[in-house]
Amino acid sequence: MSLEKIWTVLDILRWTSDYFKSNDVDSPRLSAELLLCEVLGCTRVQLYLKHEFVLRKDELEKYRSMILRRAKDREPLQYILGHTEFYALRFEVNPSVLIPRPETELVIDTVRELASAGVFPNGSPLRILDIGTGSGCIGITLAKIFPNAQVVAIDKSPTALMTAKRNAEYHQLPNISFVECDVLELSSAERLGGVLDCIVSNPPYIGKGDMAELDREVSAFEPEIALTDQSDGLSFYRKFNELIPELLKPQGWMICEFGFGQANQIEKLFSDYKPTIKNDLAKIPRVVYLQRFD
Ligand code: GLN
Q1: Whose CA is nearest to atom 4 of ligand 1?
Q2: Which atom of ligand 1 is nearest to the CA of 101?
Q3: Candidates 79, 84, 86, 135: which one to mutate for ligand 1, based on the most atoms within 8 Å of Cβ?
Q4: pTM
Q5: Residues 188, 246 contacting (CB under 8 angstroms)
Q6: Could you tell me what percent of the chain has a pLDDT over 70?
Q7: For the chain, where are the E strands, in sequence order?
Q8: Model confidence over 46-73: pLDDT tens digits?
Q9: Whose CA is nearest to atom 8 of ligand 1?
Q10: Which atom of ligand 1 is nearest to the CA of 138?
Q11: Tens digit of pLDDT for each residue in 243-252?
């Protein structure tokens, strides 16, 4: 892209869309638009009203560096933008947190369905624990949907927790608190303010041996600590299984995401609790939910 040329919004969108296409970038036109919105500080609708607008040199320079990061460095779009959407809410993201995935919305849907089925006691506020909160997407979304619930979100990574706290502030949620804590070291609910009605988690579930097969856009940019347990991908579920009687109230619920091909092992691992498995929109088994009973 020549910085000397006069570029209108429409011209540069066309050019970038072709450039992204020839470099095999996903969603070329949408990516071009979202990056340009970021540079011009406008929405996509506003962009359509600015088609004849001529970009200033500093705007062009900024845009050029962003499209190079995307097409050449293969940096994920969400990190370049610095934000993404999850359950129609805005979340800041940066390389210290996993980019929220659409399939994780199934965790939220499952909690909502359980709540509408009336499984949670009313009376005292619902206490929810989000293990490995990352950007905070699961815990924050639940805190927003259930304003009377109290959410505790934990993560081992201080930089991830700082991001999650900023996201909670952005959404002005008073009903979520954060604790820096490694769940693998946890043995009771003491540090969490007591036992909970509901545990949610999308833990690192990629086995060490499968890391090499990940897309480079994921493995080179997203935090390893959020992707893999450095073992067989099931370490966190084994720990959760041990922790259920310590962390959950009797009759409490746990809802977790798991990875492709793990459904059978997950069912076996939690067999004491008669787990139910749900498929995502691509019909891939993706979420397990179960109730504590003794
Ligand atoms: N809970 C966050 C998410 O689902 C982070 C998950 C993780 O880091 N494994 O995006």
Answers
A1: 202
A2: 10
A3: 135
A4: 0.95
A5: yes
A6: 100
A7: 83-86, 89-92, 127-131, 150-155, 176-180, 196-201, 248-257, 276-279, 285-291
A8: 999 999 999 999 999 999 999 999 999 9
A9: 226
A10: 1
A11: 999 999 999 9
